[in-house]
């Protein structure tokens, strides 16, 4: 993919009309942590989410202090899928809100649901992120 295409993918959500502050079910100011496993596309999606949160009053934080933890998982490669699932299991009992994103919510849905009952949003639905916060 050419650099211009990557830059277009990184455009802030505010340009697409997504992510207006009054829509979020989060405090006006909140802390978030984003963890990424997998391909460069998960990294691009994480950057888009980072910009979405910044536009809506969020501040990046470490895992321990975050109000919301977003995990971008990849299930295409077995080793990455295994690492993603292990990480989700390791944070499953923390008191923060956890959202699983990337291709894992679609490709490993049944494996994840064996131990995680929280929110998930597949990559192809990322533009509907507001549904998690409205």
Describe this structure in words.
The protein has helices at 3-9, 40-55, 78-91, 104-107, 109-113; strands spanning 30-36, 58-60, 68-73, 97-102, 119-122. It is globular. The chain is built from 5 helices and 5 strands. The protein has a 5-stranded parallel sheet, with helices on both faces. Strand 3, helix 3 and strand 4 form a beta-alpha-beta unit. By secondary structure, it is an alpha/beta fold.
Spell out the key features of this protein:
single chain; 134 residues; alpha/beta; five-stranded parallel beta sheet; 5 strands
Shape: globular
Figure out the total of helices.
5
The Cα radius of gyration reads 14 Å
Distance between the termini: 33 Å
* Largest sheet: spatial strand order: 2-1-3-4-5
Count of DSSP strands:
5
Percentage of residues in DSSP E strands: 15-25%
Question: Largest sheet, if any?
Answer: 5 strands, parallel
- Helix- and strand-based class? alpha/beta
Fraction of helical residues: 25-40%
Mean pLDDT: 80
Uncertain runs: 1-23
- String of helices and strands: HEHEEHEHHE
């Amino acid at each position: 993919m050419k650099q211009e295409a990557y830059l277009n993918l990184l455009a802030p959500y505010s340009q697409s009309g997504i992510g207006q502050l009054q829509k979020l079910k989060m405090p006006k100011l909140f802390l978030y942590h984003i963890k990424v496993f997998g391909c460069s596309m998960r990294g691009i999606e994480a950057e888009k989410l980072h910009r979405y949160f910044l536009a809506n009053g969020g501040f990046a934080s470490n895992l321990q202090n975050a109000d919301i933890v977003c995990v971008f998982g990849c299930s295409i490669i077995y080793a990455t899928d295994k690492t993603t699932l292990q990480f989700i299991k390791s944070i499953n009992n923390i008191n923060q809100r956890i959202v699983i994103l990337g291709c894992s919510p679609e490709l490993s849905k049944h494996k994840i649901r064996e131990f995680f009952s929280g929110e998930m949003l597949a990559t192809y639905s990322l533009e509907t992120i507001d549904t998690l916060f409205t």
